[in-house]
């Protein structure tokens, strides 16, 4: 009986769908800010009677309460402003149930309950979705880097040419630095958004959602993987450099021996 009451209550309540897309490394919002806006950081604009568009400079857009056609239109409109657009953008979504009689938390069906759909609450949800989306993309990217580093190790053990290995290892170190710069410097996964600093309710909501999406744990795991990749790549790079140094030393020894032989030949013959 209680389950039926909950289901009826969810059906009667207003439901908004929030979708997040990690489109590229950055979104230029300067031209977009000329339109009607409700807030900045992220750039928040009202779309239609009840929809919202929240655009983050670090490459994520979160659309709330829009139809698929409206979402497609906004994504197409944003495309020219996206820098280094991804071929396969990462996405995340959640259904939001607006019901003043239910506690603000996730229910058994995976829906998030809110007492009211204020701009502040929706901004907090957008912040968490955006960070989760970025983490998901780089978690997948780090997995691919792990595979490439493993192949480099196998090639090194097989004694393949060091010049090509050195270039690829430098690329992997560069990829690690890029991921660290974008997740720590731009996204600030572990930092609370400014909107929660002076609002206790929004702060509690953010903490609850950050815990549900495991933002801190995922960020810590990602940092550890990046550190391991960096140490492994640097170790291989040192080995490659040592191998090249040893080869140069052998060249020098051979030249010295040849010079001695030529000197002896001139002396005796």
From TrEMBL:
It comes from the Bacteria. Residues 55-221 form the DUF155 domain. Pfam families: DUF155. PANTHER family: REQUIRED FOR MEIOTIC NUCLEAR DIVISION PROTEIN 1 HOMOLOG. This is DUF155 domain-containing protein. It comes from Methylocaldum marinum. The lineage of its organism: Bacteria, Pseudomonadati, Pseudomonadota, Gammaproteobacteria, Methylococcales.
């Amino acid at each position: 009986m209680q389950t039926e009451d909950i289901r009826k209550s969810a059906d009667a309540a207003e439901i908004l769908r929030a979708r997040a897309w990690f489109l590229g490394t950055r979104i230029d919002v300067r031209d977009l800010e000329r339109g009607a806006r409700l807030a900045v950081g992220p750039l928040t604009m009202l779309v239609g009677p009840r929809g919202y568009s929240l655009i983050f400079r670090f490459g994520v857009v979160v659309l709330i309460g829009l139809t698929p056609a409206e979402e497609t239109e906004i994504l197409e409109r944003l495309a020219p402003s996206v820098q280094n657009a991804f071929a396969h953008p990462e996405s995340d979504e959640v259904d939001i149930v607006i019901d003043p009689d239910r506690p603000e938390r996730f229910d058994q069906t995976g829906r998030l309950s809110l007492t009211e759909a204020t701009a502040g609450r929706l901004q907090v949800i957008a912040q968490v979705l955006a960070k989760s989306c970025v983490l998901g993309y780089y978690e997948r990217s780090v997995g691919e880097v792990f595979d490439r580093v493993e192949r480099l190790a196998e090639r090194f053990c097989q004694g393949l040419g060091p010049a090509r290995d050195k270039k690829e290892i430098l690329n992997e170190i560069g990829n690690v630095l890029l991921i660290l710069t974008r997740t720590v410097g731009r996204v600030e996964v572990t930092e609370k958004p400014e909107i929660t600093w002076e609002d206790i309710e929004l702060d509690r909501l953010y903490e609850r959602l950050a815990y549900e999406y495991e933002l801190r744990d995922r960020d810590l795991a990602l940092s550890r993987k990046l550190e391991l990749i960096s140490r492994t790549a640097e170790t291989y790079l040192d080995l490659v450099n040592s191998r090249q140094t040893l080869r140069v030393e052998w060249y020098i020894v051979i030249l010295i021996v040849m010079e001695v032989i030529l000197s002896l030949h001139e002396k005796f013959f």
